[in-house]
Amino acid sequence: MEEKVKFKNIIKTGVFTENPILVSALGLCPLLAVSTRVDNAIGMSFAVFAVLLLSNITISLIRKLVPNEIRIPIFIIVIATFVSCIESLMKAFTPELHESLGIFIPLIVVNCLILGRAEAFASKNKVLPSIIDAVGMSLGFGLVLIVFSLVREIISTQTLTFSNPFNTTQSFTLTLLPELKISLFGQAAGAFFALGVMFAITAAFHNRPKKEKKEVK
Amino acid sequence: MKNKFLKYPLILAIVGIICAFCLAIVYWITNPIINERNIQKAKEAIEELYPNVETVEDVSKGYDNLDQYSISTIYDLTTGGEKKASAYQAVGKGYSGDIVYLIVLSNEEEKIIGISFISNSETSGYGADLIANEEFVAWFKDLPFNKLDKGTDLSTGATKTMNGIKKSVTKVIDFHSTVREDK
Amino acid sequence: MALISLGFGAILVSNVLLSQFLGICSFIGVSTQKKNAIGMSFAVIFVLVLASVVTWCIYHFLLIPLGINYLDQIVSILVIATLVQFVEMFLKKFIPKLYEALGIYLPLITTNCAILGVATTNIQNNYSFIEAVVYAVCIGVGYLLVMFIFSSIREKIEVAPVPKYFKGIPVAFVLAGVMALAFYGFGGIF
Lengths: 217, 183, 190
Fold this sequence. Notes:
Chain B is 43% helix and 26% strand. By secondary structure, chain B is an alpha+beta fold. Helices cover 73% and strands 0% of the residues of chain C.
């Protein structure tokens, strides 16, 4: 029972209290670049999840064998290896996704999220909690990324397109918002504006008046 | 107590080697798939440009110095039992990186049968738009060799991209006309 | 000349921060004061150029001949981490004021997407040595340019009446968006 509560807390931390994008402002570079289409966002989320999971497991497994002074270079080597593996696999099995995400796949190596979790959690905890942490953090990252992309794609192209990453000829397009189209959101400037608004909304949410607590007292 | 300066680099080296080994295995598995995919793509592009082709044969091994002509692969295209055309996969130096394309040249007449652009990293709104423009691709269809240099108005605003493509195509045509006597 | 358009393209058209979205974390973190922003930019330029040169050399003189191209990412990030370590030690000893001002953002240059991004771009776009150096230097200049303008604006915005929830990071992003709009104008030049 205790274990289950602990795991629930870990996931809650990843998605809410320490959400990598909204709270720690990590991974902003891929967020801005990849969020033009929901397909790319989903692909990127899975790639980050795969790398985070593998890296957390590995680092948790070797945490007792790694000398403290050289832990960062070792973490970096491990993470870079997994990212290269994932990139090769994507190039072979999901080539169009690999081309859309482009340079941001190798850049997962320097996504502070992965190194951050390795340092803060995986190197200090057993394997199972590290796995749950990876799930929680990726969930937090992915949810924000996908919602952000949803907004950008719908406003900038009026449609939502989902393609099977393994076989992009199978795709499915939904047309929404038939009248409104602000293509600015598909470009750089729009990305920044949308991001600013998102952080403003987050700030407003955190500072919302906490009525319930007053009543209890 | 082992000397720290010996122990740490050793551990780093061991970790590095294990990781490099794992990566090599993944690479060994995925590389053939990637190459196969590229060949498949080339074949599909060729069939689109030259519909009556019967066999496509990669004959790049028989030639040296393909790099000089910016060529990466050469295919012999056979129709009706005769090698009527050749396809070349080549690379042009565009504005921001390589432009990979496939071009089919006739063996009998001095003309380009068609071109297909495979990949590029040109600027969206300029070079990338030019390459994606169907009219631009159609300009190459049945284009005589001597008309290539004149260019087309479609390339306004993407001069560097156009020049990169032209330069490479000229080299390919040069190779096709001079070096390939056995076609 | 091809190099000139490559260079100016890197500074203005495909600006590292406003167009390629690389280096955003440091962009937001260090740009609150002009002095820190400029100091950070120079540190970034230094690491950027040096890292690009070293990774290019290792890739072309070591990895390709040995046929182990796929190790380029691991090698690149290790080179960058080492270089940043050296820069840290250098600054601590010779320019301690800047070292303290940059604080945690100095070791974070290692994870600055711009540096790994440029090193990877040099390899992916198959640049020659000269092209790689020019590209790296110009990306750095572009970074400096945007950081300078941005921090100048942010210093003024600190004392301006900004809507309550937009104060700080949100308005910074809106500003970045306006700057990105401005930079679109450079698109047609080259």
